[in-house]
Amino acid sequence: MTIDDITSFVTSLGGVLVVAPRPGDGSPEVAWGDLFFYYAPDGVVPPGQPFATLVTKDYPGEPSSGLGNGVFRVNIDGGRRDLGDVGDPRVRDRVLPHPVYAQLGWVCVVQPGDSVTDELNGLLRDAYAAARRRWDRRHP
Which of the 8 DSSP states describes residue 93? Predict the structure, then answer.
């Protein structure tokens, strides 16, 4: 799966706002080149966290996932559940607990490939649906 494949899938769900920080837009440099997915049919970034992100580099203070040079990680709000031990954050093409936010229910996939496509898309659909429910509660 490519970054474009994942972005196309997520935006096909409808009402998704993709925030893509770039130089000069006021966002922190560390976020440049990454993508943040929100359910926001009105086009306004809602309060709180995105339901998924796509990062292209390791962030300072996080265990290295070996990101960069074309290797990326998809992070997904998997809901509040016990995800077990984080393990090796460099493992590719497998759903893993997020190396930092697993305790908050986040999961991730480094360099997703064909073997994880269906599971990844299901997790993205679930996170999208939860974000949509939150948005609907705030906008009756």
Answer: S
